[in-house]
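Same chain as my last thread, 248 residues:
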Amino acid sequence: MDEILRFDNVSLGYGRGKVLSKVSCKVFPGEIVGLVGPNGSGKTTFLKAALGILRPKSGTVWTDLTHGLAYVPQAEEINPYLPLTIEETVNLINRSRHFMGRLTREEKKSAKEAMQSSGILPLADRLLGEVSGGQRQRAILAQAIAQRPKVLLMDEPTKGLDVAAERELIGLITHLKIKDNLTLLLATHNLALPLNFADKVFLFHQGALIVSNPKELVKTKKLEEIYGIPFVNHDAHGLMWIAPARNL
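reply #2:
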């Protein structure tokens, strides 16, 4: 199977500073890849390079552009005070591609299906500022889905969500992956997400990228080494849970 995204010896940074140094990895169609690591370790920088927003200082980033890419930013990047309804938000990207902003019949259909899949169709006429943070996040996810991508990049999609909203969003992401064979790259601090739902994990630390199998990641104690604290993990209800150990 041919990869859909490839980094070859890529170094990334801003100005003279370097965030990632000579990283190499591959992502294949239909994979869920979890991006984990401490704050400032390069997860968002990696996503920007994958999207083509950030040019490498060296090396090559290759993306199969026959597979459309879409991006779901962190929740705090979504301005709740924009005078836009949920439906207008979902249509924003597709509308910007046309003169006079007129959507095609197919794009209108895609937007409606995306809102239906995301569970926000009943909120279509509500303003962004009138709905919860979880519902705004669903609107941005629907905006991405409406573009009919094959690759979805998500930066901290569950940040700031309560437990119920987080669970619903994870269920939705998993459903879309199965339904549309989406390739997902998911940057997160919630380690339970990649451990339970990812096919592989990209672990970022001190400018390096380590590719790991989720279960092997726990066994090797690599997380403890990188975060500098001990972790405990256990299985419950068919899921793997991990948390910092208490100092006794």
